[in-house]
Amino acid sequence: xxxxxxxKRGPKLGRKxxxxxxxxxxxxxxxxxxxxxxxxxxxxxxxxxxxxxxxxNCYGISVLSVRSFVQQQKIREGRPGDxxxxxxxxxxxxxxxxxxxxxxxxxxxxxVVDLEKWDKSVYEATKKEREAxxxxxxxxxxxxxxxxxxxxxxxxKELLKSENSWKTGNSNEKWIEGxxxxxxxxxxxxxxxxx
Length: 195
Description:
Helices cover about 20% and strands about 15% of the residues. With about 200 residues, the chain is an alpha+beta fold. The chain has a domain at about 25-105: RRM (RNA recognition motif) domain (Alpha-Beta Plaits, 2-Layer Sandwich). Strand 1 (about 25-30) and strand 2 form a beta hairpin.
């Protein structure tokens, strides 16, 4: 008597119809993983089958296995969006869900782009300057110690120790000791005001 083997297949892909997904998947650069693995930050409501189905229908990637991990965030004091800081008001930020998939074909990240061609250093300097300027308009800006305060204190200590002599702020002026005072404009006439 001959026996026939029946192969059971996994769930069919593409049965859940999502026309405009309202979630965001963030692909993470993970150089420590092999090229057949990819990691994502996913929304908390997305499950393993949804991710597998999404990757198949959008990118044609067949997934062999999916691992997920929900990471709870640390408790913080005061919400980050509050205009007024509320001490002793604790909250826990939303948890992060990290999903790692194993693909049948390897995926290799492209080379890192050199951002200096697009003036990244200028952008970063401008960003720091703007953030420093915006800090001056914060409600607690008057309580912050200015950055030049420490250098003034250091200069005062050096002057008291007499290590350095006092230097004026304008370096263009050159004073010559023992020189006579010279009147620059001698024939200047001031007009009289008529009443």
